[in-house]
């Protein structure tokens, strides 16, 4: 009985049919189309805590968490209340609000390690794509150089310069790049293998005086989770400095999720090995910082950030930048994300990754688990992939039956093997039990593939 559901009488399949007639591929972001796992994407109508509910009234334990933002859980009552209060006072002013400054201060404070924060100033934007696009424009403007270094399998949003050999949906759909990007733009991005310092040294030896910046996911999580080799991020900062280039640490996905102060915080405090002495020049944030609303940010050293308009010559703007509803959601989420939240997320990541691995082992499926703070994913490869080439070599075909068997049992995993599994503080023991109970069935389906 779907009475009261906002489905217009259509089930998931009919919704998808209808959507495809008016929306390209029926989706507003490609990975949602189930391209690599096949089958009918679910159309959701509501969410609460650990669960999402589809148009047919089926409830799923969710391990997508809106691709990261839902750190606490879906529709956290306190976050929703703060957004409702903000909405009642006005949806958008196109002018400054006190809450924007509060959010910038809160981000700066969250990242203080040993008395200093890598974020001295912060500019709010609406998407992670805008944040990284702004960061590279800023780096080019500040250095007066053109070239950009990125790593294969890393996804930094869909701006022209950053789509070469990107992860996320391009990995899922096995696309080397996007059509519609000029050859001139593509030629300004050097794509290197991840975790390969020799390749970085060689690129800087050859082009060092023309490189504006190296951009890197703080810990890669768009080709599955692939953590940096200890010392890799620190070495990038050192090499960039030696050549007068900047290091942009993309924490859109990892920020305030991998750990309290993001992946950088885990390295800076020595919680994970990597080096406590390095500081990125610029950082980008998204997802959790907006608490489920469209909000992202670029931050860093004040002298660099002051190159942005209106102080400096690097232009950047946004009608809805610092939107009051989005800022309210971000502030409420970060304030609620205390040490207990991260302890729970780590416990969940421990349990789910251990149980998934045990189920796959019992079914005789070759696999490895990779972990980056609270983030993890499973690769169908004996050795944990260290770069994109290795990530692509896994038995990815085993994921579709694994995914669909979980879905049939009411667990919503990311619809691609190249994505992280996102835990939420709202995953209680009941939710955990449903996940753990479903895993052996999914593992057997993967074995049969
Ligand atoms: N950087 C990283 C590391 C990301 O994971 C993403 C999105 N998954 C982005 C940038 C782009 O963010 P958005 O989708 O908000 O544009």
TrEMBL record:
Cofactor requirement: pyridoxal 5'-phosphate
Any GO molecular function: glutamate-1-semialdehyde 2,1-aminomutase activity
Recorded metabolic or biological pathway in which this protein acts: Porphyrin-containing compound metabolism; protoporphyrin-IX biosynthesis; 5-aminolevulinate from L-glutamyl-tRNA(Glu): step 2/2
Alphabetical list of Gene3D superfamilies matching this protein: Aspartate Aminotransferase, domain 1, Type I PLP-dependent aspartate aminotransferase-like (Major domain)
Reactions accelerated catalytically: (S)-4-amino-5-oxopentanoate = 5-aminolevulinate
EC number(s) from the headed UniProt entry: 5.4.3.8
One GO biological process term: protoporphyrinogen IX biosynthetic process
GO CC annotation: cytoplasm
Subcellular localization: Cytoplasm
Main location: cytoplasm
Keywords: Cytoplasm, Isomerase, Porphyrin biosynthesis, Pyridoxal phosphate
UniProt modified residues of type N6-(pyridoxal phosphate)lysine: 287
Transmembrane segments: none
Family assignment from sequence similarity: Belongs to the class-III pyridoxal-phosphate-dependent aminotransferase family. HemL subfamily.
Quaternary structure (record): Homodimer.
Protein name (record): Glutamate-1-semialdehyde 2,1-aminomutase
Organism, as annotated: Ruicaihuangia caeni
């Amino acid at each position: 009985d779907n009475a009261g559901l906002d489905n217009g009488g259509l089930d998931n399949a009919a919704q998808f049919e209808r959507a495809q007639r008016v929306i390209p591929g029926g989706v507003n972001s490609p990975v949602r189309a189930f391209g690599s796992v096949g089958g009918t994407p679910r159309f959701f109508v509501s969410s609460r805590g650990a669960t999402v509910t589809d148009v047919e009234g089926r409830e799923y334990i969710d391990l997508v968490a809106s691709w990261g933002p839902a750190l606490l859980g879906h529709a956290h009552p306190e976050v929703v209340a703060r957004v409702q209060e903000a909405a009642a006072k006005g949806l958008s002013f196109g002018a400054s609000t006190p809450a924007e400054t509060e959010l910038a201060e809160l981000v700066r404070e969250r990242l203080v390690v040993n008395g200093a924060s890598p974020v001295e100033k912060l500019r709010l934007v609406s998407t992670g794509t805008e944040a990284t696009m702004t960061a590279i424009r800023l780096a080019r403007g500040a250095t007066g150089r053109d070239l950009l270094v990125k790593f294969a399998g890393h996804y930094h949003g869909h701006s022209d310069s950053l789509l070469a050999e990107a992860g996320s949906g391009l990995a899922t759909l096995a696309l080397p790049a996007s059509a519609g990007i000029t050859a001139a733009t593509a030629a300004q991005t050097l794509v290197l293998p991840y975790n390969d310092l020799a390749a970085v040294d060689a690129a800087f030896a050859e082009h060092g005086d023309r490189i504006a910046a190296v951009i890197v996911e703080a810990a890669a999580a768009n080709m599955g989770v692939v953590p940096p080799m200890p010392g890799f991020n620190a070495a990038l900062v050192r090499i960039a400095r030696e050549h007068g280039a900047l290091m942009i640490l993309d924490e859109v996905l990892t920020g305030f999720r991998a750990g309290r102060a993001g992946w950088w915080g885990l390295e800076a405090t020595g919680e994970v090995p990597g080096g406590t002495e390095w500081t990125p020049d610029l950082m980008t944030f998204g997802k959790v910082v907006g608490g489920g609303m469209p909000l992202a940010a670029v931050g860093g050293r004040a002298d660099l950030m002051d190159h942005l308009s209106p102080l400096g010559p690097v232009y950047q703007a946004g009608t809805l930048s610092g939107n009051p509803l989005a800022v309210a959601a971000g502030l409420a989420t970060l304030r609620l994300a205390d040490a207990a939240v991260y302890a729970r997320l780590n416990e969940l990541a421990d349990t789910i990754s251990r149980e998934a691995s045990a189920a796959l082992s019992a079914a005789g499926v070759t696999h490895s688990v990779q972990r980056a703070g609270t983030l993890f994913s499973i690769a169908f490869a004996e050795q944990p992939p260290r770069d994109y080439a290795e990530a692509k070599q896994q038995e990815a075909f085993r994921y579709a039956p694994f995914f669909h068997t979980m879905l049939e049992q009411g667990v919503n995993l990311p619809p691609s093997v190249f994505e992280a599994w996102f835990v939420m503080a709202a995953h209680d023991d009941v939710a955990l039990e449903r996940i753990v109970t479903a895993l052996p069935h999914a593992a057997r389906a993967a074995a049969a593939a």
